[in-house]
């Protein structure tokens, strides 16, 4: 679902089914276990992917909880990969920068990456990407990663040309629930 296709090759759709598509089957399922120890969150992530291929990843995550520390460490035992990632650094209201350094023990290789991310934008169409969290009870949260690709409706018109005086193009919407995360957090109650 990288773009909103028009099955009628530029013509207006003939039914509501062609105007929208909502996919509620997530392609990623995460189960995260977290334990907070002396200002550091230790996490075990089990990540299951069902699209485009079935894959499983396990990650051990260490993340300082103090606001001064702006990094986290991720270790993937199956790939023998360790990374130090910064938190997302806000550049503008909608643009974030994240940098990281990693080492792969199998390949004896070290490298670094950077990534600019935004919740807006897509491949020539409008896109909203977001995560929504719901705390069901203390220590158990559900987080949903979702996406909406859309084309807004458009009304146009003209006088004195060969274009119609009134023309309306209906919009399109493709929405999907991409990720579901179950997060179990254990904290020592004072």
Largest sheet: 12 strands, mixed
Task: Tell me the distance between the termini.
Answer: 47 Å
**Percent of residues in beta strands?**
over 45%
Fraction of helical residues: under 10%
Whole-angstrom Rg: 22 Å
Strand-pairing-aware structural class: mainly beta
Report the oligomer. single chain
Instruction: Give the uncertain stretches in residue-range form.
Output: 1-8
Order of helices and strands: EEEEEEEEEEEEEE
Q: How many DSSP helices?
A: 0
Number of strands: 14
Mean pLDDT score: 84
* CA-based shape: elongated
Pfam family, one: DUF7781
InterPro entries: DUF7781 (IPR056683)
Organism: Glycine soja
Domain DUF7781: 15-186
Q: How would you describe what is shown here?
A:
It is elongated, with a radius of gyration of 22 Å. With about 190 residues, the protein is mainly beta. Helix content is about 0%, strand content about 60%. It contains no helices and 14 strands. The model is unreliable at about 1-10 (pLDDT under 50). Strands 1, 2, 3, 4, 5, 6, 7, 8, 9, 10, 11 and 14 form a twelve-stranded mixed β-sheet that branches. A two-stranded antiparallel ribbon has the order 12-13. It has a domain at about 15-70 and about 120-185.
Nutshell version of this structure?
InterPro entries: DUF7781 (IPR056683). It is built from no helices and 14 strands.
Characteristic terms for this protein:
two-stranded antiparallel ribbon; DUF7781; 14 strands; twelve-stranded mixed beta sheet; disordered N terminus; elongated; mainly beta; 190 residues; DUF7781 domain-containing protein
């Amino acid at each position: 679902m990288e773009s909103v296709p028009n099955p009628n090759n530029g013509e207006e759709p003939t039914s509501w089914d062609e105007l929208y598509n909502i996919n509620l089957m997530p392609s990623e399922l995460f189960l995260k276990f977290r334990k907070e120890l002396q200002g550091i969150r230790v996490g075990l992530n089990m990540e299951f992917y069902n699209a485009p291929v079935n894959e499983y990843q396990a990650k051990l995550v260490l993340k300082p909880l103090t606001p001064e520390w702006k990094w986290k460490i991720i270790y993937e035992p199956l790939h023998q990969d360790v990374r130090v990632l910064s938190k997302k650094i806000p550049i503008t209201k909608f643009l974030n920068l994240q940098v990281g350094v990693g080492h792969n023990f199998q390949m004896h290789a070290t490298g670094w990456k950077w990534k600019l991310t935004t919740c807006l934008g897509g491949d020539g169409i409008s896109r909203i990407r977001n995560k929504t969290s719901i705390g069901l009870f203390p220590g158990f949260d559900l987080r949903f990663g979702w996406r909406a690709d859309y084309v807004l409706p458009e009304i146009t018109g003209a006088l004195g040309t060969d274009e119609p005086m009134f023309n309306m193009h209906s919009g399109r919407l493709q929405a999907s629930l991409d990720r579901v995360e179950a997060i179990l957090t254990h904290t020592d109650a004072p």
